[in-house]
Amino acid sequence: MDILESVKMATTTLVANKLRSSLTMLGIIIGNASVIAMVGIGQGTQKLATEQFESLGTNVLFIIPGNQDAQRNRGEIPKTLVLADAQAIANLVPSISEVAPQIQTRQPVTYSNKNTNTQIIGATPEFLTVRSFDMATGRFISELDLQQSNQVVVLGADLASKLFGDRNPIGERIRIKNISFSVIGVTLPKGSSFGNNQDDTAFIPLTTVANRIVGRTSPYGVEISFISVSAKNAESLGAAEFQVTNLLRLRHKIINEDDFTVRNQKDTLQIANTVTGALTMMLAAIAGISLLVGGIGVMNIMLVSVTERTQEIGLRKAIGATQGDILFQFLIEAIILSAVGGIAGTLLGVGSISLISLLTPLKAAVSPVVIIVAVSVSGGIGLFFGVVPARRAAKLDPIVALRSA
């Protein structure tokens, strides 16, 4: 029998039984849509994690006070890092380009009748480069501001909007912990990083924070919250981590366990990508079960169809159709059901991903390869699960079939 003729007959049969065909495809549609949506969400999660790590700066090491056990226990983090440590790293470690120590605290911020409680970062001029921030207007903290402990402040984009609306805040004065500060700049929007809004932040000179806001709480110098270190390039990141660790161990006279933690941005990103990759595979596997269930549904409905179409099968065999013709006919029907269901499921899945990207910060996306694989798998499932009913139809005795009719 001609292939085109078989396809035409199969299509005519399926269109004539719209409800049965639609219910048969439903499992495939849901399965395909689930696979594509889950893979898209997983890939979107990976992309979001990568963007958030990159927003912290490129080729960056983070030096945090306290060892990992202390951080896991979430107790009081020891005051083990001081400004002199950052200065020593800048002067003695050859594989790094810039060092940005910082002090973090939360304080009330007031302008006119507007009040908010926000993150205050005591920073140095190097912070702008190391952490990949850019200025929208005005300037950032200078060396002179540090030396003189000037009462100047740079506002994050969201904080500036919250306090001043559409007005230009440069030259205005705000109060932080009831101390007056002059606004000298506003940063470009940076976005959130791991739940922390980097735009709802006020940056003031590190020395001003130490002297006027939090006070000196360490007997060894100006206590800092952590140190960001920018390596010269990606290849020197490992060497920078090794050299910084050895230098701080010498400075802190450590023999056994470190009282600080050095976190490599790339290693952390790799771990995050591994976790999100495994999550994507798990979600795809769970959604793939829907495809399997859809294939079983195709087989069940096709078996029912064989019973309902006994007279048709008997008549076709009586006028010369071979077992191969009948087998091919039912296989074509199963493949069409699965392929059309796969395409409809793909459109539903892509639509769901677009909706998720539109309504949430998660920029979910899926590659064309995943779509092609999903449609191919759904077609293959139709072929696989269509074999049993097709063989059953092909083996029907025409005389018995005509009598049963």
UniProtKB/TrEMBL annotation:
Main subcellular location of this protein, as a coarse class: membrane
The UniProt keywords, alphabetically, are: Cell membrane, Membrane, Transmembrane, Transmembrane helix
| GO MF entries | transmembrane transporter activity
Subcellular localization is given as: Cell membrane
Pfam families per record = FtsX, MacB_PCD
Q: Which InterPro entries match?
A: ABC3_permease_C, MacB_PCD, Macrolide_Exporter_MacB
Transmembrane stretches in the record are 21-42, 278-305, 326-359, 365-388
Cellular component (GO) terms are: plasma membrane
Q: Which intervals hold domain ABC3 transporter permease C-terminal? A: 285-398
Q: How does it sit in the membrane?
A: Multi-pass membrane protein
Q: Where is the MacB-like periplasmic core domain?
A: 21-246
Origin superkingdom:
Bacteria
Family, as annotated: Belongs to the ABC-4 integral membrane protein family.
What is the protein name stated in its UniProt record? ABC transporter permease
